[in-house]
Amino acid sequence: MKINNAPATMASKATIHIILSFVFVWFYGAHLSANTPELYRALAHSCQTQKNSPMCADFAQQTTETFPAWLASKFDRQAISTPAFITGYYQPIVPGSTTKTARFSAPLYLLPANPAHSRAALRQARHGDKALPVLAYVEDEVEAFFIGIQGSALLDTERGQLSVTYAGHNGQAYHAIGKTLVQRGALTPDALSMESIKSWLRAHPESQAEVLDSNPRVIYFKAAKPAKHPQALGAQGLPLTPGHSVAVDPSQHAYGSLLYLEADGLPQYLIAQDTGAAIKGEARLDLFTGSGEAAGKAAGSLKRAGKLWRLHYRP
Question: What is the distance, to the nearest Å, from the Cα of residue 128 to the centroid of all Cα atoms in its chain?
Fold first, then answer.
């Protein structure tokens, strides 16, 4: 597939903004209100790891009916002066295999004793006798790369559904390959999204390895326990809630803390439950949009500015 690199006209930009706004309002329609069961369940999950928290002790006395009033009356807001920037991430559901086949040949590696391998070195070792242990295989290296970016996936394999999740990385810094493609003139900033990057990489196999290798960070995986946790798990070790769980910079926000966001078409109340390599600073958020294709499209197009507050519990 060829990507049209021509800059979007003002009219087309306006049309795109209207379409995306409609998509986000539709996709998050069930999550916009503070009294939704989803937010209540998200905080209940979060409180599982905060047994000594006065806030969680108080929350345990609430029902879905009393929760909205409790949320509105028991927290003080502390404004974050830096403008917020919000992107999205999701849990892919993709075909895969626990064994290498003609169709499934791109490995998702288990965390090795020595993780300090480059992507190029892993690619070369794949065809020799020094290959690392593999958890599962997907259809191509592009899919494997983006599963690493998202941090987890559900694979439909010959043995049933396998949940894979983040186990570690090779110690190298993260670099966004979208920046590489913009610098090369392959994509414009306006055209940049997860889907456009995937399409460009698959349409240019001769340049694929070079672009992927511009991000030196390699992600390793482990099998999750889908029977216990069918949803994607965050760094807090708990299931993520679409539309309310966010990845944050843990040096700025403690896991389990509540945030209040004002941004067009997005939820108001958020819970810090995950982290990511590109999420740095107190005003940078990555919103979990769910699992599957629709969630992926929402996540890939999500780029919003907004205003953010910390919420401090008031006993």
Answer: 33
The more confident residue out of 310 and 315 is 310
Query: Which residue is listed with tokens 């997005």?
Result: 266
DSSP 112: P
Range from 20-24, 158-162, 211-215, 294-298 that averages highest in pLDDT: 211-215
DSSP 122-188: HHHHTTSS-PPPEEEEES-HHHHHHHHHHSEEEEEETTEEEEEEEEEE-SPPP--HHHHHHHTTSS-
CA distance 187 to 182: 5
Q: What is the pTM of this model?
A: 0.79
Helix axes 194-203 and 293-301, enclosed angle (nearest 10): 100
DSSP per position, 218-267: -EEEEE--TTT--SPB-TTSSB--TTTEEE--TTTS-TT-EEEEE-TTS-
